[in-house]
Specification:
The protein is of the alpha+beta class and 353 residues long. The chain has two domains: 3-69 and 173-345, Zn peptidases (Aminopeptidase); 71-158, Beta Barrel (Elongation Factor Tu (Ef-tu), domain 3), CATH 2.40.30.40. 26% of the residues lie in helices and 25% in strands. The protein is built from eight helices and 17 strands. The protein has helices spanning 3-14, 23-33, 143-147, 175-194, 213-221, 265-277, 295-298, 326-342, and strands spanning 39-42, 48-52, 60-66, 71-77, 83-88, 100-104, 108-113, 135-137, 155-158, 163-164, 169-172, 199-205, 226-234, 256-259, 283-286, 307-314, 322-325. The model has no long low-confidence stretch (mean pLDDT 95).
């Protein structure tokens, strides 16, 4: 990954973007794609769509990632100055206590999610409290002082920064799914440079973590011939994961193409053929019912839009220390660009019966 692409990724990961509060993250994305997109539009809730206009003969393909991350929201200010919070998306209550957090008020406010010291609690009865029972300490002496700094409804995120691990691996919060929006933007840059025949939309959706809401909006408003959704998937190459519960997925072994249910068989074949042509190693994953991604909303939009989920291997999903391999990101972007170029050979995507 070259310096400019790495800088873009770091900017995305450094910009807090909890569901419902994606504006700053979307601005980072738009500032990047508008350099090469023919047009960029934003809807009422902040879904961003950039387009490369094809020559009119090719199909219309949308490549998408979601901009939002999990987080919290201030739901109460207590008399003693502590804050009660609620989850935004699927926050993991087992990793929240003892963490630094930032409350995104008019000015950022630093705090910590309290954890009673091990010396002062009965460890034989340790249990993980729901997030709603946990509290944030911002150092305020009472509620009056606290309310001068924050108010109910302010979003909250973990205060973690990008860390380089060995080789090409990075750790940060929010890899899910700023890495997907990075890949969508990078795919568009590549197809714009190559001037492919297809019209290609790069989309950064909002509010995926709270029910695929942005994808529902985009699926209604945009009518491409196919959606290629990019999201993270669970890497099963760590000691704490029983691979028998999920298919084998490894970091650094390439994009993950999912087969079954949502995933249109012609798009699966197209992606696998493009990977072979470009000598990109891919991994396969099965989806017997749903994928839990924006693709679930796209494929039932209108009268049904052929869709495919292409995934990025990710360790420790929905924690402050998600880990990815940047070689997988580059390969996903390259694969998406290749798929959109090869899509010009298809008049339509439909199963033959």
């Amino acid at each position: 990954m070259d310096e400019r692409r790495r800088e873009f990724l770091e900017d995305l990961l450094a910009t807090p973007s909890p569901s419902g509060f994606e504006t700053n993250g979307q601005r980072v994305w738009i500032d990047y794609v508008e350099r090469f997109a023919d047009e960029v539009t934003v809807d009422a809730y902040g879904n961003a769509i950039a387009v490369h206009e094809g020559n009119g003969d090719g199909p219309e393909i949308a490549v998408t990632g979601h901009a939002d991350e999990i987080g919290f929201i201030v739901r109460d200010v207590l008399e003693d100055g502590y804050l009660r919070i609620a989850s935004v998306g699927g926050a993991d209550r087992t990793v929240t206590k003892g963490q630094h957090v930032t409350i995104h008020a008019d000015e950022p406010v630093q705090g910590v999610i309290g954890q009673t010291a091990i010396h002062l609690r009965d460890t034989t009865e340790d249990d993980y409290e729901d997030v709603s029972a946990q509290f944030v300490d911002i150092g305020a002496a009472d509620d009056e002082e606290a309310r001068e700094l924050v108010e109910i409804g302010d979003p909250v995120t973990f205060t973690t920064t990008l860390q380089e691990l060995s080789g090409d691996r990075l750790a940060a919060r929010g890899m899910d799914n700023r890495t997907g929006t990075w890949c969508a933007a990078e795919a568009l840059r590549r197809v714009s440079k190559a001037d492919v025949e297809a019209t290609v939309y790069a989309v950064s959706t909002v509010q995926e973590e709270v029910g695929l809401q942005g994808a529902k909006m985009v699926g209604h408003g945009l009518d491409p011939d196919a959606f290629l959704a990019i999201d993270v998937t669970h890497a099963t190459d760590t000691p704490g994961v029983e691979a028998k519960r999920r298919g084998p997925v490894e970091l650094g072994e390439g994009p993950v193409i999912t087969r079954g249910s949502v995933n249109h068989p012609m798009l699966v074949d197209l992606a696998r053929e493009a990977a072979d042509t470009e000598a990109i190693d891919v991994q396969l994953q099965a989806a017997g019912t749903r994928t839990g991604t924006d693709a679930d909303a796209f494929y039932t939009s209108r009268s049904g839009i052929p869709s495919l989920i292409v995934s990025i291997p990710n360790r420790y999903m929905h924690t402050p220390v998600e880990v990815i391999d940047t070689t997988d990101l580059v390969d996903v972007a390259e694969l998406l660009a290749a798929v959109t170029e090869d899509a010009a050979e298809y008049d339509r995507f439909a199963v033959e019966i």
